[in-house]
Design brief:
Distance between the termini: 40 Å
Family: Belongs to the short-chain dehydrogenases/reductases (SDR) family.
Number of domains: 1
Organism: Sphingomonas jinjuensis
CATH superfamily: NAD(P)-binding Rossmann-like Domain
Number of strands: 7
GO molecular function: oxidoreductase activity, acting on the CH-OH group of donors, NAD or NADP as acceptor; quinone binding
Strand order of the largest sheet: 3-2-1-4-5-6-7
Largest sheet: 7 strands, parallel
CATH architecture: 3-Layer(aba) Sandwich
Oligomer: single chain
Keywords: NADP, Oxidoreductase, Rhamnose metabolism
Structural class: alpha/beta
CATH topology: Rossmann fold
Radius of gyration: 17 Å
Protein name: L-rhamnose 1-dehydrogenase (NAD(P)(+))
Helix content: 40-55%
Strand content: 5-15%
Bound molecules: NADPH dihydro-nicotinamide-adenine-dinucleotide phosphate, the ligand C[C@H](O)[C@@H]1OC(=O)[C@H](O)[C@@H]1O
Shape: globular
């Protein structure tokens, strides 16, 4: 039980990677608070899975694009679970769209959810960890897209590079408090975020063909890397990033 006795907060945990990570952390012994914005049924189902594992779980609604959500989530989660040991910034959107006619609202919403939201969430979690005085681990669900571009992701990839940069800077700012800050870089993971994009069979086959391990990722593929960064196994790891992409990034030819 690598996370026994720890409390973990996960944003965007009603579906996909966030939900898998929330339940996975509970499987490794943690109590978990999860944030979601719209999918109450998904959030409730995740809490039920966490409770079935014998751990405490709580779902707290809030749009991360609103900076006020951050303080409220951290305060309510701390009141319910007692403290925060691990914070996973996962909530994100990727509304695929071409560059030349990108609607201002799509650009701004993507920035607000993925990057502004992360900034204020990480700040609120860090303040609580500093107050507790016992260190902590902050993990950002960045992306392989922090390193490479996407034709229909010109609004999205900068948020993922920004998240990684945020982790590097807060690793420096929070090191004196023994709060470690790291990024995960998932490749293409099969979730609702890319369901429409990958409904194009040709595109899906092409994406699969780029992965040396021969398959696209599943949300559960992020559990082990998250548990590692959350646990004391990574006590001397901060400011780092870990690709979880089946080898896609290094596959030039
Ligand atoms: N899938 C992939 O290939 C990859 C994903 N990632 C990143 O992983 C993270 C999770 O993505 P994934 O699981 O695929 O996506 P999903 O669409 O499956 O899940 C997204 C989650 O984020 C929540 N969410 C969305 N907007 C908000 C908001 N404004 N406030 C709070 N919660 C919100 C959703 O909850 P609700 O519906 O309740 O709003 C949902 O729980 C994202 O940051 C994404 O960029 C990175 C690399 C690859
Ligand atoms: C949503 C995409 O499938 C996914 O998002 C990422 O961050 C990856 O780079 C993939 O493009």
């Amino acid at each position: 039980m690598l996370l026994a006795g720890k409390t973990v907060l996960v944003t965007g945990a009603s579906a996909g990677i966030g939900r898998a990570v929330a339940v996975g952390c509970a499987r490794h012994g943690a109590d978990v608070a999860l944030n979601f914005s719209r999918d109450q049924a998904g959030a409730d189902a995740a809490v039920a899975e966490i409770e079935a594992l014998g751990r405490k779980g709580i779902a707290i609604q809030g749009d991360v694009a609103d900076p006020e959500t951050a303080k409220a989530f951290v305060a309510q989660a701390t009141a319910a679970l007692g403290c925060i040991d691990v914070f996973v910034n996962n909530a994100g959107i990727c509304p695929f769209h071409a560059f030349l006619d990108m609607p201002v609202e799509t650009f701004e919403r993507t920035m607000r959810v993925n990057l502004h939201g992360a900034y204020f969430m990480v700040q609120a979690a860090a303040n609580q960890m500093v107050k507790q005085g016992d260190g902590g681990s902050i993990i950002a669900m960045s992306s392989i897209s922090a390193l490479v571009g996407g034709e229909y992701q010109t609004h999205y990839t900068p948020t993922k590079a920004g998240l990684h940069s945020l982790m590097q800077s807060v690793a420096i700012a929070l090191g004196k408090h023994n709060i470690r800050c790291n990024s995960l870089f998932p490749g293409t993971i099969l979730t609702d975020i890319n369901k429409d994009d990958l409904a194009d069979v040709e595109k899906r086959r092409y994406m699969e063909s780029r992965v040396p391990l021969g398959r696209l990722g599943q949300p559960d593929d992020l559990v082990g890397p998250t548990v590692f960064l959350a646990s004391d196994l990574s006590a001397y790891v901060t400011g780092a990033s870990l690709l979880v992409d089946g080898g896609a990034y290094v596959n030039l030819q």
